[in-house]
Amino acid sequence: MAHGMRTNSHTHHTKRADWRESATRYALLPLRIFLGITFIYAGLDKLTDSTFMQADGEGSIGAQMDGVRDISAIPPLVDLSLKSPVGFGYAIALGELAVGIGTLVGLLARVAALGGVLISLSLWLTVSWHETPYYYGNDLAYLMAWLPLVLAGASVFSVDALLAARLGKSPGPG
Description:
The protein has helices spanning 11-26, 29-48, 61-68, 75-83, 85-105, 109-126, 138-152, 159-167. With 174 residues, the protein is mainly α. It is elongated.
């Protein structure tokens, strides 16, 4: 008879929809892990490199900033860093470390991502501004990579999600 009942007619579509929903929910996790680990590594690398944390000399933060001063988009920003190159080096390194940890564990994830945007923007406008063509400089790519995390936060595997669950709120999209 034509009036029989099928109960599993949309099972395939439901599974595909569930998979898409899961993929969407976890889509930013690889980016979070990559940026978190990369910024932690960058911060630790600077903090443990005695050559880098010097006001002058080959490989120092002072020499690097002095070398890009005239070819940066904002020379006054470089001049500001040259007033205390070692202090600036520590600020960048500690900022990268804080941003990386916050991003990796998902603690104040949007604030951490905004910090990543600001660090990447300042490095793009100073250190890698002169790269031609522009896509050779990696700071612009990092800047763009941070933007989805500023918008979406860390809705899975994060301290933010745990705190939101305890408060009965949603940590972000998805």
